[in-house]
Every structure is written in C-alpha cells, then in structure tokens.
Amino acid sequence: MSFQPIVATSGLAGWRLLQNTIDRQTEAYNSAPNLQKAGEYFAENIGNVKSADDLVSDRRLLEVALGAFGLSDDINNKYFIHKVLSEGTTAQGALATKLSDSRYTALANAFGFDTIAQTVMPGFAEKIVAQYERRSFEIAVGEQNETFRFGLNLERELPEIAAKSSSNDAKWYSVMGNAALREVFEVAFGLPSEFGQIDIDQQLEVFKDTAQRRFGTDNLSDLAQPETLDRLTQLYFLQEQINQNQSLNSGTIALTLLQSTQSLQ
Question: Are the C-beta atoms of 180 and 150 separated by less than 8 Å?
Fold first, then answer.
C-alpha cells in the first residue's frame, strides 16, 4: 500500500502542521512503486516523442504529461488534447489561447509542438516528472482536505505566474483563469459565490482593489513574495474557517480564530 499524506487537523493549525512535515511526507509519497515506474517510463521514452500524435498515442506518457499540469481528467479526451498540443499557442486562434483554463496554455507551451518540440531538450523529462509527482501529492492531500490542496497549489503556481514577463493585468487574468487559484483569492477576499458572473474586467478591478486594501499592493509579483504569500495563505484559511462556521454566533467565531492565531505565534 502506498504512503498516504498525513493530515492531522483542519484549518490554519492543520496547514502549519502539514508545512512542517511536508518534506518528509513528499519523499515518502514519491517513493511509491507506481509513481516511480510512471516517472521512469516517461524519462526513458519521452525523447522519442516529436509530435502531438506521438504523445496521445502512448497512454502511459500522456498520463504523466497531463498529470503534471493537473489535467488527469482529460486522459480520455484524446482529440481535444491533441488539438491543444498540436495547435500550441503561437498561431492566432489556437485552441489553448481561447480556453479560460490557463492549464491548457501551460501544457501546450511546455511541449512546444507548434514550434520546436521541447521533449528532446536537456532536463525536460526531469522537470515534467517533478511536476507530476508534486501534483500527485497535492491530489492525495486534497482527498483528505481540499483546502490544503488549494494552499499547496497557491504556493506552487502564484510564483510561476508572477515570474512571467507579461503585464500585471495579464498575470491577474492568469490567476482568474486558474480554478484553484481563483478559489483561494475569492475565499481570502471574502467575495460572494455570484462574483464570477459579473463582467470579467470588473472582476479584475475588484481583485486588484481588494489586494491593494488588504496587502498595500495589487502587484502580483509582490503578492508572490514569500512573506506576503504566507499572509495571503493565512487569510485564505482563516476566511475558510469563518465560512465553515457560519452557523455559529459571531462571538464563538471570533474566539475560535483568536485561539488559532495565538497557538501559531
């Protein structure tokens, strides 16, 4: 039986405990035979893949490729994935560029089948396998506590988006197009469930204005800095606790959050 991540408790206290043990837990999780075999097969064979046809025709390779970008549910949507990969992102009207989910753009960019196939480049296999292992661990954590999966996703993806050379607004749109990141920001900022129904440009302004009020900046590169990122993560878990305890009176909620905060000091 493979190692299952240990999630001792929920909320901010549970998140801190997970953070303190995550190196040991990921090492144990990644040593599972099925995960090691998948990574080894990918590393040994991906260099022979030169096109989208090659990749989608090998289910074992495709499982790792999709898993590395959190797209495992698309394993049977071969026509769709083939179109995403083959069209890439450089051509006008390419499918990946028209999808609201930024994971497809990341997948197409990573493999580069519309320009120069990255599969033969040094370090490519190791990078994708590492992403696959980390995503797999996040999913395993999420099976026990979904909010922790969102927290892990935030720590991984926000710095990657912030490091891009695109404009600040473009980075925000990337966040808004990523379901897991969007969930964290909406919860942390206390936005209503209907928020996603308003005009996309208005959503952008609300995200930026709220970030400015809460963190003194709407620059995603600043929000991705370790100290501010930790504050954002704390805000997400504290707000999530509030949401989970809506049936309690305000005094009980305030006491619970105060005790959680003091125990972490």
Answer: yes
